[in-house]
Amino acid sequence: MSRSRFDIRAQPGFGFITLFTFFALYLPIAALVVYSFNGAESLSQWGGFSSRWFVAAWQNSAVQDAAIRSLVIALWAAGLATVAALMAALATTRTAPYRGQTLKYALINQPLMVPEIVTAVALLIVFSRIKVWTGYSGLGYLVLAHTAFCIPFAYLPIRARLESMDLTLERAAADLYATRWKTFRHVTLPLLRPAVIAGFMLAFVISLDDVVITEFVKSGGQDTLPTYMLGQLRRETTPEINAIATVFLALSTVLVVIFFFINRKKQ
Amino acid sequence: MNGAEQAAAAARKQDIRSRWLLSAPALLIIFVAAVGPLFVMLLYSFMVKGDYGDVKLGEFSLEGWTSVFFQRDIFDDTLGLADAHLSIIWRSIQLSFFTTVLTAILGFPTAYFIATRPPHTREIWVFLVTIPFWTNLLIRTFAMQQVIRNEGLLNNALMWLGLIKSPLQIMYTDTANLLGMTYVYLPLMVLPLYASIEKLDFRLVEAGYDLYATRFQVLRRIVIPLVRPGIVAGSILVFIPSLGAYVIPRVLGGGKNMMLGNLIEMQFGSGRNWPLGAAMSITLMVLVTVALIFYVRNASRGGAGHV
C-alpha cells in the first residue's frame, strides 16, 4: 500500500495517544524497577547503582516467611480450584441445557461480580466467628477463601477448551469399550491439558496477587507478601520494598508470558 | 412410553445426577467462602453492635442501616443526614465516574489504533496491555506512588523543566486517587474496546467516506455507535472495581480522602461498628448491581454492523 493512498482506518492523533498510553502504562513500573537498584538509604535520593536492597530483602526473615506463605497458599488454592473447576467444567459443557445449569454458571462466576472488599468483610464476619467456635486459626481459612475466588479463573479456559473440542475421539474410545473413567483419563484429559495448565496458572497468579481478601481473613502473623508490603507502605519506605516488588513483578511476568505462549500454540 | 424411551430418559436422569455430583465441590466451596457469607453479612447488618466489635447475636436492630444515612445529634438527639458517610459515598461515585471517563479518553484511541494494525503486530500490542493487567494491583499502585510523590518522577521532571518551583502535592489528594485508579484500571477499558473494534466492519467506514463524511464524522456517526457494546463493557469493568476500590485510596489517598471501601474497613477496625459496616457493604453491592443492570440493558441493544 502506498503512503499517498487515503487510509480509511486512520484517525488523527490516535497514534500519539496510543504512544502516551503505553508510556503511561510502563513508566511507573520502570521507575519502580530502577529505584530497586538504588544504593541510597531512602527513596528520596539516588545513591548509585547497587543490589544491596535485594540482598537485604532476601535476608529479611519476615519477607522470607511471607513469600513462602504466599507460595504455599497459592499452590494449594490454585490446585484445589483447578480440580474443582475441571470437574465443574465437565459438568456444565457439551450437554443439552438442564434445570439448574444457569444457577451453576451464576454461582461459579459469582466471585467476579461482587467487589472484593464486600467479600472480604463478609468472610471476616463468618471466619472470626468460626475461629472462636473451633479454636482453629491456621492457614486453612486463607486457602479456602483463595480457592473460592480462583475457581472462576481456572474454570474459564477449561470450559472454553471443552466447548471447542469435538466428541469424535471420546466416542471412538467408547466404541472400543473404554469405561468412562478410562476415556477421561486417556482421551479427554490429555486433550485438555493445555487448558488445565493455563487455568492453574491463572488461578496461581490471582491467588499470589490478592491483597484485600487476605488482609481481612488472615490471623495474626499470617502475612502474605502483598499484605506485608501493604503494611510496609504505611511507614517511610526504603528501596527494599522496590526490590521485593521487582522480584514479584518478574515472577508474575514470567508466568503471564508462559500462559500467553501456551494459549498461542493452541490456536 | 416404550422401553427404549424409558431407558433414554433414565440415562438422561443419571447423566444430570452425575453432572450435579461433578460440579458439587466447586459449588460447595463458592457457597461456603463467597456466597454464604454475604447472607450472614446481611443478617449482621440487622443486629445490635457488640461493645468491642462483632455483634450481639440474636439481638436485632435497624441502627446499622439508619446510621448509614442518618446520624443522631449528640446534643438534642434529633436525626440528621450523616454528612460524613454521604460525602464519602458521593466522592466514590464521582471518582469512579471520572476514572471511567479518563480511561475511555485514553483507552478508545489506543484500542482503535491496536485494532487497525496488521494481525501479527496486533497480538504483541495486546500482550503489552495484558502484562500490566496481570501485575499485582498493589505493586502498580506503589509504582504510581513513585511517579506522583513529592520527590517523584513527575515533580522532578517538572522542576527540571522549570515549570514549577516547589513540588506539587499530589499524594494524599483526590487527584492521586483518580490518577491511581486510571492507571490501574486502564487495561480493563482497552481490552473489551479492542475486542469490539476488531470486529468492526470497515466497509461501513468506507461507505461513510464515499458519502463525503469527514474523519470526525465517521468516528462520531459510524465507529462509536457500532462499538458501543464495547464502550459499555469497558466502562462497567472500570466503574465497578473503582467503586469498591480499597487498596488505591488507602495507599495514595491517605486518611483524608477515603472512599467507600476504606469507610467499610473502618467500621470493622477502629469504628467497631460491624452492623454499620455490613449495611455499608450491602449498599456498595446495591450500587454495583444498579451499574450491572444498566450494563445488561445497554448491552442487549446495539452492536449491529459486526461481522
Automatic annotation (TrEMBL), chain A:
InterPro entries: Bact_Polyamine_Transport, MetI-like, MetI-like_sf. Residues 67-259 form the ABC transmembrane type-1 domain. It is a multi-pass membrane protein. The chain crosses the membrane at residues 12-37, 67-91, 112-130, 136-156, 190-208, 241-262. Gene3D superfamilies: MetI-like. GO terms for cellular component: plasma membrane. It is found in: Cell inner membrane; Cell membrane. GO terms for biological process: transmembrane transport. Its main location: membrane. Keywords: Cell inner membrane, Cell membrane, Membrane, Transmembrane, Transmembrane helix, Transport. Required for the activity of the bacterial periplasmic transport system of putrescine and spermidine. Belongs to the binding-protein-dependent transport system permease family. CysTW subfamily. This is Spermidine/putrescine transport system permease protein PotC. The lineage of its organism: Bacteria, Pseudomonadati, Pseudomonadota, Alphaproteobacteria, Hyphomicrobiales.
